[in-house]
Amino acid sequence: MNIKITKSDHSRISEIDFNNLQFGRDFSDHMFEMVYKNGKWQTAEIKPYSQISFGPSLMALHYGQAIFEGMKAYYADDDTINLFRPTDHHKRLNNSARRMCMPEIEESVFLSGLEELLKLDYSWVPKEHGHALYIRPVMFASEEYLAAKVSSEYHFYIITSPVAAYYSEGFNPVSLTTSSKYVRAVKGGTGEAKAAGNYGGSFLPAKKAQESGFTQVLWLDAIENKYVEEVGTMNIFFKMGNKLITPPLAGTVLPGITRKSVIALANEWGMDVEERKISIDEVFLSHKDGNLSEIFGAGTAAVISPVGHIHHDGDSISLDREKIGPFAEKMFNSITGIQYGKMNDSKGWIHPVKVK
Ligand SMILES: Cc1ncc(COP(=O)(O)O)c(C=O)c1O
Question: Residue 220 Cα, ligand 1 centroid: separation in angstroms?
Fold first, then answer.
């Protein structure tokens, strides 16, 4: 894989306060860039993180052909940085690309781009346990043309950002509310793709939920407003007895890599995992029956996020817990243990990158 590399002649790392990292605010010295035109991807480049410039007729701005990924790299030791399930993120990126009529990227290009970037910017991967280097691959239509059609040009970037532990102040269970007015996705739409527009459309309902004192919206299905789907940037799990229940991947839910990891570990631990439709009424009933012991979200940012409270249609349930439940905590410790190379990676989820 031929990548043209131009190193930055001045590192900005000394300007970064690693004790006060804000998610997604600081960016490491280099970025990966690849341009698609004349029907193919052109030479890949790694160059200093810099501004990009486009005309106001940039098609991505007008017609929304834009997709992204979100993944993390973890400090294992001075020579090794661990990428977590990068080939799964690559597959999902290509699934999103197909849905949005955008060109796919070869796995070898994606992986060597990540590896070379990490070799240059490994000192940006925070060493403290819980901290990580967040990785954001993004692709958008870059033809400058006001026509509602598929673009003939695209830009693909990978930028990285050091981030602090999500739970620096302990696990705070989140409170969720359903919405009777807004939906995130409908079958046949773009909900299972990581398309930028899915997020833009969710901001108004999320803002209204926050104004009413809730952390995020618990999305219900768009047809019957009855079945649970997912949360802002997390898939959702319900623990009922020895059963773990999560909504199925039936076209509206983003297929989370953390979700997939939770299911694999729970299966390994002998849990009965059900990927099936679960109605909000069933969740409330099982809480009433004393059968619902834990609710948690799963996603790259927080890994596992305990849910303490759900509000729906004038009614609410609370799990009366100030912190994370024992099952969710075990899951959190196991996944992060594997990510930081402290626990055996029997499933081959870790892609170690030798940076020296
Ligand atoms: C809508 C949505 N659902 C679920 C997830 C969780 O996916 P993952 O575990 O791959 O981060 C994310 C985050 O990427 C998301 O944006």
Answer: 16
